[in-house]
Design a protein that fits this description.
By secondary structure, this protein is α/β, with parallel strands linked by helices. It folds into two domains: 5-54, DNA polymerase, domain 1, CATH 1.10.150; 62-345, Aldolase class I (TIM Barrel, Alpha-Beta Barrel). It has helices at residues 10-19, 25-35, 47-56, 128-141, 166-176, 197-204, 221-227, 236-250, 268-278, 303-315, 336-345; strands at residues 62-69, 75-81, 86-94, 97-101, 105-107, 122-125, 153-156, 189-193, 211-215, 254-260, 283-289, 320-322. The chain is elongated, with a radius of gyration of 21 Å. It binds S-adenosyl-L-homocysteine. Residues 110, 112, 114-115, 157, 161, 192-194, 215, 257, 259, 288, 290-291, 293, 333-334 line the site of S-adenosyl-L-homocysteine (SAH).
């Protein structure tokens, strides 16, 4: 595989152009083309320069292989990377803007029992430039530019564990939020982790004040170990301490994801225990009814149970919302699309 141009920042692009013996404004032209989500071959620079660049760099590191459109407007993309690997992404439409859900790894090695992304393990990490190219591409397909973005919000909740690809994810976030580039505010970005405590603490020091989201899905370590192998490494107590540290460093409240699984974590007693655990903390709870994954035997709760759970949290003064499931008709849950694609191929 050739190199990915989107891995470079503006000064690295300037050096590339200088080394090629070209005038500095060519760097600006190339950079602007890239920020618009266009392939190198469409840059308004001499073809000799393009040929020179394309000897070392991919023309398009990410391509759309397929798009699925849901009745509710959600779009699900299957992207193909330059080496043929597949990752997925989703674009959800809300009245305040469009949120793109981004993958950070091909597959995942965290092994959560309810998640389709991890069914085939982890194949490889995405580079910073591959993640950026995915955002720039979707923004272009939606008719946006670097200045008038159509992708207004980003959630790192696709396949992969962002903190298992720490360096690339941090580099990506710096490119994404750079004023030279698409210039997205970290406040419009959410990063979800299954709770890698050392990386959560390290990230608190990076000065990227985004919305830190932690997949909790249980109220005791024992119950958490049943569905999330990572619970064998870090306790809920250590996770809560790392969250408090993030708040101390950034002033940003943090969010917990809690997927309601029938017969597992969704009783009123669980709701009371969760309230007790989070009482007085600067946090928010996102409840979601588990999206059923056909390869797994875990089921989501019914709506009534979910609202009852929400009611207990609210009564106890915990800020919480029950998320709508979007795009369920097109396999909206993590990794479902790629998993079904791989199953068809085999
Ligand atoms: N690895 C990261 C981000 C990826 S998944 C993490 O673990 O947080 C984004 C969220 O979707 C996580 O909270 C994950 O636990 C949840 N999730 C995975 N599979 C799901 C399913 N089938 N139904 C509902 N939520 C699911």
């Amino acid at each position: 595989m050739k190199r990915v141009l989107q891995d470079l920042d503006i000064s690295e692009i300037e050096n590339l152009i200088k080394d090629a013996g070209e005038r500095p404004y060519r760097a600006v032209q190339l950079w602007e083309c890239m920020q618009r989500g266009l392939p190198v071959s469409r840059a308004p620079v001499p073809s000799s320069l393009k040929e020179n660049i394309l000897q070392d760099f991919e023309d398009e590191p990410v391509r759309v292989k397929e798009v699925f459109r849901s009745a509710d407007g959600t779009e699900k993309f299957l992207f193909e990377l330059a080496d043929g690997n597949l990752v997925e992404g989703v674009l959800m439409r809300y009245n305040y803007g469009n949120t793109q859900c981004l993958s950070t790894q091909v597959g995942c090695r965290m092994g959560c029992k309810f998640c389709a992304s991890t069914l085939h393990g982890r194949t490889r990490d995405l580079s910073a430039g591959e993640m950026l190219a995915t955002v720039l591409l979707v923004n272009r397909l939606e008719g946006g530019t670097a200045k008038e973005r159509k992708v207004t919000n980003l959630v790192l909740m696709g396949s992969g564990e962002p903190f298992d690809n720490y360096e690339n994810v941090v580099k990506f976030l710096r490119l994404l939020t750079s004023p030279n580039g698409i210039n997205m505010s970290p406040r419009n970005v959410s990063l979800s982790t299954c709770g890698l405590v050392p990386e959560m603490r390290r990230f608190a020091e990076e000065n990227i004040p985004l919305n830190l989201t932690v997949s909790l899905h249980a109220v005791t370590d024992e119950e958490r170990r049943r569905t999330m192998p990572i619970a064998n490494r870090y306790s809920i107590r250590e996770i809560l301490d790392a969250c408090a540290y993030y708040f101390e460093k950034t002033g940003r409240r943090y969010i917990f994801e809690y997927s309601l699984i029938e017969g597992e974590n969704a009783d009123e007693a669980h709701a009371r225990a969760l309230s007790k655990l989070l009482k007085g903390k600067p946090c928010h709870v996102n409840l979601i009814r588990l999206n059923e994954v056909k390869e797994r035997d875990l089921k989501g709760t019914d709506e009534k149970t979910a609202y009852r759970f929400l009611g207990v949290l609210e009564k106890n003064g915990i800020s919480a919302t029950l998320r709508r499931t979007m795009g369920a008709d097109i396999g909206g849950a993590c990794g479902q699309l790629r998993a079904s694609y791989l199953a068809e191929e085999n």
